[in-house]
Specification:
The complex is a heterotrimer of chains A (about 300), B (about 280) and C (about 550). Chain A has about 300 residues and is an all-alpha fold. Chain A has 2 domains: about 70 residues, no CATH class; about 210 residues, Orthogonal Bundle (MetI-like fold). The longest helix of chain A is centred in the last third of the chain and has 39 residues. Chain B is built from 11 helices and no strands. In chain B, about 75% of the residues lie in helices and about 0% in strands. Chain B starts with a helix and ends with a helix. A 6-stranded mixed beta sheet of chain C has the order 6-7-8-3-9-10, with helices on both faces. Chain C has a domain of about 150 residues: Rossmann fold. Chain C is α/β, with parallel strands linked by helices and about 550 residues long. In chain C, helix 5 crosses helix 7, helix 14 crosses helix 15 and helix 14 packs parallel to helix 16. The chains are: A mainly alpha (about 300), B mainly alpha (about 280), C alpha/beta (about 550). Chains in contact: A-B, A-C, B-C. At the A-B interface, helix 1, helix 6, helix 7, helix 10 and helix 11 of A face helix 5, helix 6, helix 9 and helix 11 of B.
Chain lengths: ~300, ~280, ~550
Amino acid sequence: MILSGLAQRLARLAILLLGVNALLFVALGLAGDPALMLAGEDPTPELLERIRAEYGLDLPVWQRYLVQLGRMAQLDFGVSIYTGQPALSMALEQLPGTLLMAVLSMALTLITAIPAGVWIGHRPEAASRRFGAALTAVAQGIPGFVMALVLIQLFVVRLGWLPSLGYAQPAAWILPSISLGFFLAPKLCRVVSAGVAEAMQEDYIRTARANGASMRFILWREALPAALPAAVALVGTQFAFLVSGVVLIETLFLWPGIGLLLLHSAQNLDFPVLQAICFVVALLVFAVNNLADALLRLIDPRLRPATQ
Amino acid sequence: MTVAPTLNRVLAPLKASPQLALGAAALLGWVLLLALSGLLQTHDPQLGDLSQRFAPAGTADHLLGTDNLGRDLWSRVLSGLPWSVGVATVSCTLALLLGGTLGMCAAQFPGYPRNIINQLVDATLSFPGLVAAIIIVTVAGRGFWPLSITLGLLSWPVFARVVYAESLRLLAQDYVTAARVMAVSTPRILLGHLLPGLRPVLAVVFTFHFADMLVAESALSFLGLGAPLGVPTWGALLQESRDFLIVAPWLMVAPATAIALLVVSIHLLGDGLSALDRARQ
Amino acid sequence: MSGSASLLRIRGLCVDFPQSGRILHNVSLDAAEGEIVGLVGESGAGKTLAALAILGLIPAPGHVTGGKVFIRDRELTKLGEQALRPLRGRLAGFVFQDPLKSLNPVRRIGSALVESAMRHSGLSRKQARERAMEALRSVELANPESAMRAYPHQFSGGQRQRIMIALALINRPPLLIADEPTTALDASVQSRVLELLKRRAKRHTLLMITHDLALAARFCDRLYVMHGGRVVEHGPARELFSNPRHEYTRSLLDALPGRRTTAPMRSKHRKSREALAAVRGLTVRYRGAAQAAVENVDFAVHANETVCLVGESGSGKTTIARALAGVIRVDPEQLRFPSLNDDLPGAAVRARHLQMVFQDPYSSLNPRWPVERIVGEPIRTHRLCGRAEQKARVAALLGRVGLDPKQMDRRPAAFSGGQRQRIALARALAMNPRLLLADEALSALDIRTQARILALLRDIREERRLALLLITHDLALAAEVGDRVIVLRRGRIVEQGPASKVMNAPRHEYTRELLAAQARWRPENPGREGVRMYTPRL
């Protein structure tokens, strides 16, 4: 079962990579003659001819496609047409910055959203919880990048408490992480609260009460564990969405990461780098999805293969 | 004669759920604003008055203030609305049609069609939409149709997944089996039993997705990739405001508030609809 | 009755819910030490609520508005939540109906037991573990060591219910409250769980809540009959069973299989050898399943007869029904309709030949459609009559199944379970079939409703000369109504033959086991008329 699940996932990854690759290939064709871009200003016809021969641009389209597919299979994405550096290493160099922000904001998300979700889900009909739920709904409605602008205005421009740009000092990590947290935290909070509220209606909560368990025990040891699988599944499926958020937040804070590189490369039509970025991003999401699934099997025994 | 009962059927859920009523009221306000956006603009959104540069919000003639070229912000905010709503409507409808059809196909035809569609859905959903959108829009160019179609093509799996799961549930109901036993034809089952059954779920997903598409459009415009230059969508206004965060904060506050308000009202409606759906079951 | 000292005393208990008003009216109940007391009634009678009220466990908006509850002379209704909590599980332990839903799916069995033991008895973790193992052994669960580490879904239904009993008894409460403890279980498992409860009841007082009057009469010392939130009658079990005073109790007894006046179903029409459906070597294997759901099954249904297909859950009975109805595709060689001219009838021809009524009255009618459209669906599909006539046709069908045709504009939500089953029956009859499949069509209904629907079915089958294939887990029902009985086990037929023969002289061991399991806890068959095994001694 596990093996076939993994095989399915790998197949999906292959579909995704092929799809993205084909998309970029078509995009490259639409974007204009790459030889012109490579040749710089005022190219002579001979120079163009030489570049075409060198990069294989004189071959028919399908051959060109297969050639670059073959290169990609060997993890050779070519060099950036802008800086001349290898594309893959450019993308990988930016990864730590992106990961730092992702991990920080994920930690922030977990330590705020789960307690808040449990608190709201405990008695969703109470007035204070309704207010909390409404607040969460509003937070969910404010797009993360808009929230980031508001936070910058407040804490950087008005109060001057925090630096807005840079990456060297940890104080500059705070705002980007909080802003990115807004992409996922409200959703997670709602899923946890809905899960806890639903679990509280289940028969096994009645069993626990009939056995004299305290409300605290019931909430944290009975209802939350039952609500957690849905939360983990959400984090898994929404990670791709979180990466979208990373792109926006990095642009906003000029944070050196993969998102910023993506935007610059897109503006420069630097297709080798774009290929490499898409490859890295797809692998990253793939890794996190699998991690989430493994975690899911750990906390939800029903998903484990039968042993008894 | 028939107006009163119909009206009642529409109003009954609103009475039952204050959330839904509030969402519907807010949305009605937005629709009015959209319909009258031309009439309500006090100034030409593109024409600046250099003597009136950086007038703060609340200035006599300029409700929300003016920008660096002296253009009226209130008129600019209003004139960006139809464009954004248009993009969201087209992309959502496209995603609904594509995703709905494929989701129903996956539920009705087990075997290869189901496997292929589901693999496609999962693969697409595991790639960050914004990353793909940035690349496509960069190449395809700005503009209403490229942007709408890109967003629609990237987001149909959202509908496909929900429609697939809900269709499976509905097709397993005994009344569908009963229809099969009665030799009701498959198209008739799909039209008579499945589609009406999908409606509540589709309404909920469409509502939330509409909000997501609004946000996606403004994010792309904010990155300078969505609306063409000169169309003051809210994302573009936010992008412009970044240069004047210190001198003119209102330039950021107005479009930010507008986006947040619009999305929150749509979410309110969506929450109300899904609560209604849950109450029905 | 070992001791006579009173353990549980309920006096004039009233429970209100803000939306629906008073649900429990003035309920009084006594249970002496060591006694088994039954609380009997149909669903919605307030049995569970009364039991939950004992330890202040009424769900949120509801509250006790009057009356007192004592256990060993301690007044529990005076105590607040904080004071009650340590008493729960210590004064009384609960066993609930559905053991799968009543155990937290993501917690280990051991952790649930150990936490509960530590909470109340102040034991160390090690001692609590010992206590938990002991509790699991006392409910005769094999291999308690590994059970402690397992999760609820890894057990069978019967094992889960044993674990629930262990959990209820781990703090050695004097009172054990069992709420429909065997309703969700198969007959053979039911019997073993009941035996276990009976053995445990030697040390504990047992309050047994059940809808099964026959079971309660045999199992309990004294009975309380509840109806509409009131106790309508109480007394020693045998006495109440043989000599009911209240009209409601009498109506319950009269609806029991074998005693209801509506039976038997056996047709007065002459038997015919015309086979309406013949199954030969039917084998169905679901994709990905290791075992075939149905394997090599042979039987036939003839005109004018009632055939009962009996089996526990997972025996393949529903699969057979679906294959017959054409919902599952099977090899045409394995399924024939000899009375139809062609061997391979088209879907429309088959639909007119054979119709089906389903188990779940809630899922078998489209909730969005008005009744007129539901019953009219086959009429429209097959153009059985003109548009103008359709309404009159639907009205006639509704009238026939005992519903008011004026209600045809309403949606299914406006009807009760029994009424919905009538609507489903009207829809099936609209096709004027010769063979009607009823897949557990009665098992979701209360016993009195069941009796009424059964009477209706009998009348209609007589009137229309229908053949009936009744699929059920209930051996008593099969014995009561079937001309022929087919016993299924794990997808294979173990025995088939005339009902009286199968019931009175079962050849196969499994049938004997099933019969014994069902008969053991119910008043014996006086032997008056072979198959009426449930007729109580009068």
